[in-house]
Amino acid sequence: MILLKRGGLIPLFIRRGAVFFFIMDCFTLFLYGLGARQRFMDATQSMLLGLASGFSLSLILMAICGVSITLRRLFRREQRRFVLELGLYALLSVFGVLTALFAGFILVFSRGNGG
To answer: Exposed, middle or buried, 20 (CB in 10 Å: 0-12/13-18/19+)?
Structure first.
């Protein structure tokens, strides 16, 4: 399949999507940290945390797709050069999970438990 080859369209989309969501996630966390230090409005901070959570979930989805494509290529061709790519996708997924948990915890903590 031409779409799943090394230079194919789907792996390229997955790699670039993962990098994009990682950069956007880091940027929104940076803006949240900057705003917390300068005491931005609560609505702005909540919006930034919601964006960080959405970017984190998208990063997790891209990383899982990347892991599945990389595992397919690793077992099919049995080349060890894909191990580094697999490790990077695993680190991205761990970063996404931790960021989503952090953003969710801060959102719940700031809004209260509703009871």
So the answer is: middle
The pLDDT tens digits for 18-34 are 999 999 999 999 998 88
The ranges assigned to domains in the chain are 12-109
pLDDT greater at residue 43 or residue 50? 50
Output the DSSP codes for 24-93.
HHHHHHHHHHHHHHHT--HHHHHHHHHHHHHHHHHHHHHHHHHHHHHHHHHHHH--TTHHHHHHHHHHHH
Nearest to 89 by CA among 77, 100, 97: 97
- Which helix or strand (DSSP H or E) is residue 12 part of? helix 9-38
Using alpha carbons, select from 111, 109, 107 the residue that is nearest to residue 99.
Answer: 107
